[in-house]
Amino acid sequence: MGNRSDRMIRIGAVCDITGESKSTTYRRIADDDDDFPPPYHFGAAARWSENEVRAWVARKMREQRGERPLTLLLDNLPEDVREAFGRLLDAWSSDDLAELERAWQEFRAAKLASIGEDAASEPVDVPSAAGPADAGAAAWLGRGRP
After folding, report:
1. Strands 8-9, 40-42: parallel, antiparallel or unpaired by DSSP?
2. Could you give the CA distance from residue 53 to residue 13 in angstroms, rounded to a whole number?
3. What's the angle, vertex CA 98, arms to CA 92 and CA 104, rounded to 5?
4. Using an 8 Å Cβ cutoff, are 100 and 89 in contact?
């Protein structure tokens, strides 16, 4: 579902967001080659994550404008950098700023190593997960805390 502000929406709201009919939406779900987000089932009720549907629409718009999706960019990275980036994304979705800082430093070191530079040669000030910088880091990360 994603973040805390995500809502579970019905098929009518999905169609309002995508601008497509119910039958087209259900066809997309049935098509294994389509990347449309599948519904979550609560008993007999099917609901979609509003954030997932909006992200799908945004991705389709970027693709039509010729923008390269993140997955295409990641395909060109060395495997150790891709793995470090995956760990960074996992840490980003948690509320643990210390874990996020560690994952960022790991990703940065892997990326610099992939281009032949030393991570220690260019220090980066990442706010600590404790202390007065915590509020600024949390706000920067979009956590909504002051």
Report:
1. unpaired
2. 10
3. 55
4. no
pTM, to two decimals: 0.46
Dump pLDDT digits (tens) for 44-95: 999 999 999 999 998 888 778 776 656 666 667 788 887 888 788 777 777 7
- 3-state class of 83 per DSSP? helix
Half-sphere exposure of 142 (CA within 13 A, CB side): 6
Answer left, alpha or beta for residue 43, where phi above 0 means left and psi between -120 and 50 means alpha: left
Question: Which pair of structure tokens corresponds to residue 21?
Answer: 């009919």
Asked if 66 and 60 count as a contact pair (C-beta separation under 8 A), the reply is: no
Q: What is the dihedral of CA 74, 4, 126, 103, to 10 degrees?
A: -40
Distance CA 114, CA 80 (A): 9
Contact status, residue 67 vs residue 78, Cβ threshold 8 Å: no
How far apart CA 48 and CA 66 sit, in angstroms, is: 27
